[in-house]
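hey can u run this one w/ iron/sulfur cluster bound, need the structure tokens asap thx
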Amino acid sequence: MKQKIIPFFLGESGCPGHCIYCNQALITGQDLSPSDVSSSLSGYLDRIRTPDRPFEFAFFGGSFSALPESLARELLSMVRDRFRNTNFRGIRFSTRPDCLSDAFLELSVEFKVITIELGVQSFDDRVLYSLQRNYTSSDAVSCLERITSRRIETGVQLLIGSPGETLSTHRINLRTLSGIRPGCLRIYPLLVLAGTPLEKSFLCGDFQPLTLDQAIRLAVLYMNRLEQSGIRIIKIGLQTTPTLKASVVSGPWHESFGDLCRSCRFSRQAIRLLRKKVGGTLIVNNADVPLLLGHEKHGYRLIVQKLGYPVKYKINNNQAAGKPGLE
Ligand code: SF4
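ok here u go:
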């Protein structure tokens, strides 16, 4: 059963600096100073209906482990106390590789934090430097190892389309991720947002973001390689908020970016099958019909365009979900 996660967004609370591409207030639709966090969380917890099925509570955005320890302890206690005697599985939070001390890891163990997601963004040092992240790939890997050594699950957040990115960046990312095998992965295409230093680079021609097509192809490459290595990809693309949508200056923005990527992968699998048996009929599980058709039938049109003839398909729930078959 898919895990329910109740998110609380911290804005840029705790962040030691301002990354060149980031405007968390726009991404999350929320902008909290550390002093606001506790009262905001308290109001938020009061409004939440406890889910019937197992759930987690997440502190996302910002850098949770860089908050003052007393504030983090207060927030963790509030969540733990609010969900006592419920289906609550535990807490997850996101942070940066250079902001997770051993003391904070001990605090995480004390409060039964189950997952720590690291906004690594890239394992290529040149890209990390361009993004002004102020840590290296080996800092990120050793941080992930320190989390795992406490028996806390790791998550990695990865950006694609960053300044300075080359083919070698993707080789490094894929090799490193396949080696460390985090518990889960989120992939985001880099967008140029209003009011960020990246916007200035874009406007003066120093940075060109990926096109939507390029970003989809790249995300599908990561999905194929990393899922083969047993890595669970839990999110592709940024969460849509009205403020984010209005603030995208340029880049591969699409509200259904993840669906476009999954549908593109499914279409390519279908094309490979149909090239082996021209005129064959695709067999798809009922759950995969949206993947086959794709957003506004884009997936199906891609298959027809590549093969040059209208393709037939049948629904058969004996076909494994996630892959088309052929007869
Ligand atoms: S650490 Fe994350 S939330 Fe903070 S400024 Fe950088 S990208 Fe934004």
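The domain at 4-255 is CATH 3.20.20.70 (TIM Barrel). anyway lmk if its weird
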